[in-house]
Amino acid sequence: MNLQHLKYVIEIAMCGSMNEAARRLYISQPSLSKAIKNIEEELGITIFTRTSAGIILSSDGAEFLGYARQVVEQVELLERRYFKTTPSPQLFAVSTQHYAFAVNAFVEMIKKYGSDKYQFTMRETKTYEIIEDVKNLRSEIGILYMSLFNEKVMMPLLKEEGLEFNLLFKAAPHIFVSSQNPLASRSSVTLEDLEDYPRLTFEQGEYNSFYYSEEIFSTIPSKKSIQVSDRATLFNLLIGLNGYTISTGILSSDLNGSDIVSVPLEEGEEISVGWIVSKKAQLSRMAKLYLEELERIVQYYVEKDKDKYR
Fold this sequence. Notes:
This protein is an alpha/beta fold and 310 residues long.
């Protein structure tokens, strides 16, 4: 086993596909498969398991990947310091529910730390897929929310999958509406105030359980309901249909402009937003830097509106 073999494992884990990893590594798929098989035989473990959904890391593979990332990063630091070598592309992936602050942190990380070569991935996706991505280490970090309602299912699920939840902040629920919506000028609203407005939520695909919903109060029925798959569409519909969605209250004027505003929702529930990570994984340097930016941006909003968060 050599350094290149470690890079093979890292690339396959990032891609979730032997064929795609081989394409990116500029080697044939049979050669890559043979190399991985040789590593597994040498170590006496199974690193990757083949399923109908593709290649996933085994439990031993997840632990091995953490060490592999650390070794590759340290070797490259030495090479850049003493041999002035050109660094390999930096690798990092994060999966998240649809939060502007997660994108803000991603942007700031790249501005501050991105080199001339990097391969970063940001997946705004469904709740179940976030958990699967982090479990299989396609993403190092996942960002999602908990409430008193869904944590009864989510916390045992995360534990079963070998994942841990780290709290970023807690917030009172707010609605996002168009600045032209009649509710936009209100100091607060109730669920009853929202009854005649279209409710917008993010669809969860085949795992469309109340527990996987991105929005709090998902069990409360709505006369008008629209599911979407991305933030841009949701914001367009907030404006075009005078709809609303329920979230944390954090809005980024840099990303969202001034057409959308947040209004407090008068309910006693609380939203806990945090990041999940595999218990066996060792976070890469870029993952740690992303978390630093994420916490810095969240802290900015917490300090800015102390009554919303804690």
